[in-house]
Amino acid sequence: MLLKSFTSSNRLLSVPRPSSRKVAGLTPSSKCRANASEDGRSLLGDIPYTAVSAISSIGLLETSYLTQVKLFGAPLVCPSNGCEEILSSSYSYIFGLPLSLFGMLTYGGVAALAAWASQKREEVHQDSGPLELADKGLMAGASVLASCSAVLIYILKTEFYGESCSWCYLSASLSSTLFILVIGGLLGSKRLRAAAMPGAGAFVLGLAVLFTGFADVGQSNAEISELAYYKPDVTSESSKRAISLAQRLKDSGAKMYGAFWCSHCFDQKQTFGKKAMTDFPYVECFPTGWRRGERIADVCEAAGVRAFPTWVINGRTVEGDLSLDALEQELGMPP
């Protein structure tokens, strides 16, 4: 009886043998993916290294082109009105070197590092060290690009009111996308904590370098806080075609919105000539002069003016100075 009781209790305490049956839907590889965050993977997946490398390569091409323009005097192609003035200003240099050169080096480093990390991705389960190192570098690179773009867009909006710069907006879009992809790919993982310090340091470093390098530029620009209104003197001769076109524009209700200090507006007036400008549908957006922080005239704001000059022809808004051919086309005149 005692022996029977012992063997019965022994069966109750015995450790069950591992089952050789597979649980449906749960394989070793799927279990690893389910616990990805414990292995250093993001809860949202991972950094899309290939996409990061591709976007950085676009930034590399853009900044390489702008650097070539600066260093070798290559012609600058501006998709929008105003980028020539912005990209040739004092803000386009830092410590005596083209700002685009630093962008080129940073984009190039991020592109190469992301391409290398993409090849190393398959080794993450054996050794996550290489990817953690890449994450730190990518976080630092994306952070410094994002911080610099934020400062430059702020300068564009405050120091170059009414001007547009397609190259600047492109770079800002690329750097913002890179930052979102990198931080989003690490969100919720241990690797984010490891990469946070280099990223924060690079962000602050980017701001410090720009503010230090632009200190003299900001002081010189701060001296100009007001411009008294003056009427630019149009000196070119008007052709019969220009005079006729000016009258047609006026009769159609077209308007050209501009600013007295805008060089592109003056160029547009010179295209028509002195006589055509005597009865021209021009609207001045700063009729009492320019003062820092002052808004444009109500009539210009109501027309949605964001750059100078701005044409409104047949209900359509067109930015930039236009040729006579382009204006005739906007009016619907036969070629």
Describe this structure in words.
The radius of gyration is 31 Å and the shape is elongated. The strands form 3 sheets. A 4-stranded mixed beta sheet has the order 5-4-7-8. The chain folds into 2 domains: 39-222, de novo design (two linked rop proteins) (Up-down Bundle); 240-331, Glutaredoxin (3-Layer(aba) Sandwich). The protein is an alpha+beta fold. The chain has 13 helices and 8 strands. It has helices at 2-13, 28-34, 49-72, 83-87, 99-120, 129-159, 166-186, 190-213, 215-222, 240-252, 263-272, 298-302, 324-331; strands at 93-94, 97-98, 226-227, 255-258, 282-284, 290-291, 310-313, 316-319. 30% of the residues are buried. 57% of the residues lie in helices and 7% in strands. The termini are far apart. A hairpin with a 2-residue loop joins strand 7 and strand 8. The longest helix has 31 residues, at 129-159. It is found in: Membrane. It is a multi-pass membrane protein.
Mean pLDDT: 81
Unreliable sequence segments: 1-40
Helix count from the secondary structure assignment: 13
CATH T-level fold name of the largest domain: de novo design (two linked rop proteins)
Total count of strands: 8
Strand portion: 5-15%
Tell me the radius of gyration.
31 Å
Strand order of the largest sheet: 5-4-7-8
Report the CATH architecture of the largest domain.
Answer: Up-down Bundle
Distance between the termini: 116 Å
What characteristic shape results from the CA principal axes? elongated
By helix and strand content, what is the structural category? alpha+beta
Determine and state the CATH class of the largest domain: Mainly Alpha
Largest sheet: 4 strands, mixed
Pfam families: VKOR
Family: Belongs to the VKOR family.
GO molecular function: oxidoreductase activity; quinone binding
Domain Vitamin K epoxide reductase: 45-186
